[in-house]
Automatic annotation (TrEMBL):
<keyword id="KW-0436">Ligase</keyword>
<keyword id="KW-0658">Purine biosynthesis</keyword>
<feature type="domain" description="ATP-grasp">
    <location>
        <begin position="108"/>
        <end position="306"/>
    </location>
</feature>
<dbReference type="InterPro" id="IPR000115">
    <property type="entry name" value="PRibGlycinamide_synth"/>
</dbReference>
<dbReference type="GO" id="GO:0004637">
    <property type="term" value="F:phosphoribosylamine-glycine ligase activity"/>
</dbReference>
<dbReference type="InterPro" id="IPR011761">
    <property type="entry name" value="ATP-grasp"/>
</dbReference>
<comment type="similarity">
    <text>Belongs to the GARS family.</text>
</comment>
<dbReference type="InterPro" id="IPR020561">
    <property type="entry name" value="PRibGlycinamid_synth_ATP-grasp"/>
</dbReference>
<dbReference type="GO" id="GO:0009113">
    <property type="term" value="P:purine nucleobase biosynthetic process"/>
</dbReference>
<comment type="pathway">
    <text>Purine metabolism; IMP biosynthesis via de novo pathway; N(1)-(5-phospho-D-ribosyl)glycinamide from 5-phospho-alpha-D-ribose 1-diphosphate: step 2/2.</text>
</comment>
<protein>
    <recommendedName>
        <fullName>phosphoribosylamine--glycine ligase</fullName>
        <ecNumber>6.3.4.13</ecNumber>
    </recommendedName>
</protein>
<dbReference type="InterPro" id="IPR016185">
    <property type="entry name" value="PreATP-grasp_dom_sf"/>
</dbReference>
<dbReference type="InterPro" id="IPR011054">
    <property type="entry name" value="Rudment_hybrid_motif"/>
</dbReference>
<dbReference type="Pfam" id="PF01071">
    <property type="entry name" value="GARS_A"/>
</dbReference>
<dbReference type="InterPro" id="IPR020560">
    <property type="entry name" value="PRibGlycinamide_synth_C-dom"/>
</dbReference>
<dbReference type="GO" id="GO:0006189">
    <property type="term" value="P:'de novo' IMP biosynthetic process"/>
</dbReference>
<dbReference type="Pfam" id="PF02843">
    <property type="entry name" value="GARS_C"/>
</dbReference>
């Protein structure tokens, strides 16, 4: 099997690493790729992953049999529809299904039709209408989001009406905004593979979305832990109230597709509430999930192609993982790029040894291991694996300072609340 992966971030590096471990893949290509992916795949640096014609030409040139898309830009460009018309197997959401993520108001109407629990919300098309509403509800806690896909999940979670109104000014440039009730509780990320007949759920994760504990600025994700140990009846509730009604809704509304769907869920008083759909893998949840899956990803792809993914028995490690993101100075508002990256250890061979943390690269630039610079916000994801969350956490934080970037930062509490609760149970 000859596979092309499209993407640029750390989650795409993690996906490529997963494919590189398959026994069924004869050659792996990555567009555009970077210094790290060159050790596990053939980079195609001149191929823009959102350029349909360029991707198609690369498929012909390299005799690609499957194209895997786990990130948003190629999907938004209509890559799936285009490649399928060209009779090339491509996994991901087509244009019709992108509305689940790209139009939150549509997604909320979809959940209403299928009785899926979501936060109370209002859609506003003008700043004056938003202002009038917030003045009537002064002091109440809301989450403000763009109705469309926005980079790094830009949102504001606040009870300050003036702050919400000010934050909305830039969001209105993208279109209407969605104002939702604040839901307090444990965040859960559920990722599933889809085909036309069913789904395969991957281990549940919990993401850390803010710059600091319980406060700070929302980000694209600063860390994740996997798996989340939920009581069986809570897992059943998530499946019965959110996952399965969604799968049914996709089928009856002719939105089913072969690819990935991610559910962002809040456990509010032990009741699951769907916060968002993502028609792709999430970052950094993916970096935490993928290292624990033993099943050959090519087997999963074949099952999706044949509409039998629900029959796959997923083989998952008994270990836990903790993923921590190293971000550039200024992230998430204005990340500083062009900073030198100094590595204490050769991370390009680091991922070959199980006892080491895994290193997945985000936006970095450079052709030489000794001359790397930052090129965006979330530059590296460090993933530790261990017998429990505590040991995985220790592996990450023992290693993380060996990546030296002037002004960089990371959260220092990823996984703490989970292994503290493990100790209490002991």
């Amino acid at each position: 099997m000859r596979v092309l992966i499209l993407g640029t971030g750390a989650k795409d590096h993690a996906i490529a690493w997963w494919f590189s471990r398959s026994n069924l893949i004869s050659e792996l290509f990555y567009a555009p790729g970077n210094l790290a992916t060159s050790t596990i795949a053939t980079n195609l640096p001149d191929v823009d992953p959102s350029d349909k014609e360029a991707v198609y030409e690369a498929c012909l040139k390299h005799k690609i049999q499957h194209v895997f898309i786990g990130t948003e830009e190629p999907l938004l460009a209509g890559m799936i529809d285009f490649l399928q018309r060209k009779r090339i197997n491509a996994f991901g959401a087509p244009i019709a299904s992108l509305k689940l993520e790209g139009d939150r108001n549509f997604a909320r109407a979809f959940t209403d039709r299928h009785n899926i629990p979501t936060p109370r919300r209002n859609l506003f098309e003008s700043s004056q209408a938003l202002r009038n509403f917030l003045m009537r509800h002064e002091g109440e806690h809301f989450v403000l989001k763009s109705n469309t896909i926005a980079p790094s999940r830009i949102m504001l979670d606040s009870s300050d009406a003036n702050a919400l109104i000010s934050f909305a000014e830039d969001l209105f440039k993208l279109g209407p905004v969605l104002l939702e009730e604040h839901c307090a509780g444990l965040p859960i990320t559920v990722t599933v593979f889809l085909d036309n007949n069913g789904y395969l759920a991957l281990p549940f994760t919990s993401d850390y979305m803010y710059t600091s504990e319980n406060e700070g600025v929302p980000t694209g994700g600063m860390g994740a832990i996997c798996p989340i140990q939920l009581k069986p009846h809570l897992v059943s509730m998530i499946k019965e109230q959110i996952i399965e009604p969604t799968i049914y809704g996709l089928k009856v509304e002719q939105l089913s597709y072969k690819g990935v769907l991610t559910f962002s869920i809040i456990m509010k008083n032990d009741n699951p509430v769907l916060v968002d759909y993502h028609v792709r893998f999430n970052d950094p949840a993916s970096q935490a999930i993928i290292p624990l899956i033993k099943t050959d990803v090519a087997e999963i792809m074949r099952a999706i192609e044949e509409d039998r993914v629900s029959s796959i028995e997923l083989d998952v490690s008994t270990e836990s993982s903790v993923a921590v993101v190293v971000a550039s100075e200024g992230y998430p508002m204005k990340p500083v790029i062009g900073k030198d990256v100094k590595l204490e250890y050769p991370f390009l061979i680091h991922n070959l040894l199980h006892r080491n943390p895994l290193i997945f690269t985000g936006p970095i630039a450079g052709d030489d291991i000794n001359h790397i610079k930052t090129n965006g916000g979330r530059c590296f994801t460090i993933v530790g694996r261990g017998k429990n969350i505590k040991s995985a956490n220790e592996k990450v934080y023992r290693y993380i300072d060996s990546i030296k970037i002037d002004g960089s930062w990371y959260r220092k509490d990823i996984g703490y609340k989970f292994f503290l609760s493990e100790n209490k149970e002991d």
